[in-house]
Amino acid sequence: MHDNSSKRLAQILGITGLLPLLIADVATVKGYGLVAVSLGNIYAAIILSFLGAIHWGLALDRSQSADKTGPLLLWSVIPALWGFFALWWSPLLATLLLMLGFVAQWLADLRLQRQGYPWPSWFFPLRSGLTLGILILLGVLAAEIYSMLQS
Questions:
Q1: 76 touches 56 (CB < 8 A)
Q2: Where are the alpha helices (H) located in the chain, listed in sequence order?
Q3: Domain layout of the chain by residue ranges
Q4: Which of 12, 30, 143, 150 is least buried, going by the fewest C-beta atoms within 10 A?
Q5: Could you read off the pLDDT of 103-135 as tens digits, one per residue?
Q6: What pTM was computed for the model?
């Protein structure tokens, strides 16, 4: 039962976590322009950092062998740095770089999934769905930015 309640809560929190980016998309369409785009990109960078922290947590698992701990710790900070530096570029490039960061993070998690890391069976399918959701929302944001640049 514990696994089902954790799964349900993770689903609710994950889907709810997409709302700020959806709001940024809608606000951009409604004319809030650069402010909405910037807030959407900042939020995406924060979420990307959060996802990297999963690797930090796995590295802290004392059952991990020492040869796996270093790469986990190293990767755990890459998404945060990627998100930070992505925000230094133009809004469109920042959005595209953030999208690339989410794909890279998903690939890193896929690698761990294939290695049999000890997370619940529902975790990776949820991560995959949420990654698809954030990529769609960032894609919409990128299209909106491109449209603003053409106006």
A1: yes
A2: 2-16, 19-27, 33-60, 66-86, 91-114, 123-150
A3: 31-150
A4: 150
A5: 999 999 999 999 988 889 999 999 999 999 999
A6: 0.93
